[in-house]
Amino acid sequence: TDLDAFITGLPKAELHLHIEGSLEPELMFALAERNGVSIPFASVEEVRAAYDFSNLQDFLDIYYAGANVLLTRQDFHDLASAYFARAAADGVVHAELMFDPQTHTDRGVPFSEVIEGLLCAMEAARAEHGISSSLILSFLRHLSEEAAFATLAEAEPWLDRIEAVGLDSSEVGHPPEKFARVFAAARDKGLRITAHAGEEGPPEYVHQALDLLGVHRIDHGNRALEDPALIERLVREGMTLTVCPLSNHKLCVVDDLADHPIDAMLAHGLKATVNSDDPAYFGGYVADNYRAIAMARRLDRDALATLARNSFTGSFLPDEIVAEHL
Length: 326
Ligand code: HPA
Ligand code: ZN
Prior knowledge:
Structural class: alpha/beta
Bound molecules: hypoxanthine, zinc ion
CATH topology: TIM Barrel
Helix content: 40-55%
Number of helices: 17
Order of helices and strands: HEHHHHEHHEHEHEHEHEHHEHHHH
Shape: globular
CATH superfamily: Metal-dependent hydrolases
CATH architecture: Alpha-Beta Barrel
């Protein structure tokens, strides 16, 4: 349709994408076989049928189980290559990929295998698809501060190839303040900062991400809308929110996509963006997210273009490169 062509044709940056969340069931089976790893599913259909979540933790349990098939740098390369092919087809020209090293190093997979596989695919994506990309090392917030420090230390040899650090996994009960010191250390190393906040957690966690982590953007941020003073602050600071409509629906952050607050965010003057989060688990890549939210909220082309523009101004690209994309 015209809308599909318009959305695909809009140059977009993807700012909120967990590369482990782009593991499609078909690749999960292929890697399970290649690596001799058993998975608790008999078929691709059975995997897809299990993707029926009522909250974030339901999803995380299955997402971490799926990641067990990833063992070698070739696996991480193949995972990211598949993502880049889908992203290119969707009109993504720049992607900032989150990866969860602890999900792999805790299973005995070396950090080097994870990151070298991803970096190799990123280089190929530039050549094959003209997509630029960078890496966001995300700490698992259900694990300890000490474990996050150990992960940052492991990343040391690759810090020139890591753009930012992030914070993901189970939000409630693991507030940003738990990681204030490790984020300060990351900032001292020149890394940019982002954190999931206000997905399931309260507005207070968004305040903490700003005050205690020094974030340059907020991943999700939906629940900031409950706090008018916080909305005003996010607008004043020009803070980007990396919103993920299909994820919000699948994880019951919104009951119905028709009630999604994306246009309310824009109306407040918040710098909202549209992203896929974990596309293999939530039923769509970035263009699917634009299409779904455009239909659900009757967004016009100006609004869609604003969302796409915000994805560049909210990126970690240098200002002069951002300007080239606007
Ligand atoms: N929230 C928290 N942790 C995550 C997510 C998410 O949406 N996706 C992958 N890890
Ligand atoms: Zn996320």
